[in-house]
Amino acid sequence: MRKILLSLCMALPLVANAQYKSEVWSPDNGDGTYTNPVVDADYSDPDVCVGPSGEDYYMTASSFQCIPGLPILHSKDLVNWEIVGHALKSLYDGIPELEAHFAKTQHGAGVWAPSIRYHNGEYYIYWGDPDHGVFMVKTKDPAGEWEKPVCVIAGKGMIDTTPLWDEDGRCYLVNGWANSRGKFASVITVRELSADGTKAIGNPVIVFDGNGTENRTVEGPKFYKRDGWYWIMAPAGGVPTGFQLAMRSKSPYGPYEHKIVLAQGKTDINGPHQGAWVHTKYGEDWFIHFQDKYAYGRVVHLNPVDWSTGWPIMGIKGEPVRTYKKPQSSSSVIVNPVESDEFNSPVLGKQWQWHANYHQFFGMPTAFGTMRIYTHKLEENAPNLWNVPNMLLQKTPTDKFTVTAKLRFTSKADNQFGGIIMMGHNYQALVVKRVGNEFKLLLLTCEDADRGKPQTETEIATLKPTAVDKINYKPGIHEDIYMRMMIDNSKIKFAYSKNGKKFIPCEGEYQMKEGKWIGAKFGFIAAETNPKVDKGWVEADWIRVTK
Description:
This protein is mainly beta.
């Protein structure tokens, strides 16, 4: 019956997904208060702007090499967020040489610390790609299609860019600098752009220097204007250990005086910094920022802002809050970013990203209520899975959760394998691998995958195929299996089942680790070593995230 209903639904125009309530983390306490983090997932370097209604807030975040990129989240109250789209279909759509470059996995490259702004009836996102320059996309509908990216400034080293349109129509851009590309950092620069924000018409001016001071590693600046003052809000002191600075000047080019306005203090919220100041139509002020939770990535917090001293003192007297009253809003809807997926739509769910620019050979939704991921040929002599581009992954939703997937693995040749994975610098995967006319259930484990360390294989069981093609033309053998990973305090335990009811635990406990500038991500893996055979595939019926 499910497949019949699915076919009927697919014949109708697509409709928006129902609002999703997470089983594992929701910040809204239902009593007018919220508990941080408001998004307990890796939305690194978040930035937020307010739409013309005054109650539509849009957030974007760093996406690095993951595609689709530049996630767009929407909220009515700064606490309840849902994923509504992405601004980038590829890196970089319409620029062939860069699209080809990102066809291979480029860990940690791509989109760094974007900013989102509403100006003259359009939404703009700017970001720095440390290897290629400053880029911009824009749209009239942030949940819809975005225009192709424009290269505003070509070059290396420029990161963390934010525009500011002044009252006289002039446009300025602030940015930080990547030491890894230019061999200098800890400075903030401002330059003028054309009024339409598409090109630089002035040279950069250093307006703040954190070198040799506690303000080392100053980066991630956001540009604002308030009551005649130009404000740059920027983190300093390092990602997991630093603090938030506010700087002010009567000129966009400085000089700027500065003050620490948010720091960990006596709380357990480390490195609270880099984010967005938001002024609501109700006259309230808030700061959305991240906290680095290592293997889980950089999660999103919300803190009140007090301007009574003339400076934006954040949290309570400059220390972050854990629980606080919600921002004033006309909305009472509780909604969270989507995690589980029944794969009943012909469009890939918004929580999913590939590890490189999408190619049709990676996989695609089916008309049968499944998601198919084809086996990707590993590079010759590849020691591990670090550079596999077609891993279909999503962010971890909180510290403790369980992932269960129902899947069928179809193999056309020996040594093809597929299953579920938690991917980072260290990774762990539970897969079925074809050996002759049967399957081996294996745990794949790798530490320091980015350094080329080889993975190890631990055999869990030998499985007879649950189905075998009867035809003589390129027959396949199939394994139907349920796979589970249980995550708690950065530790993973795996289990499997043949009937979805009784799960058999795999021995051992595995340590999660973050990836290159991103948190660990979970999802599906399908790979092989022989380029001359027909591809096999993982056919995922569903994946569910529960307590």
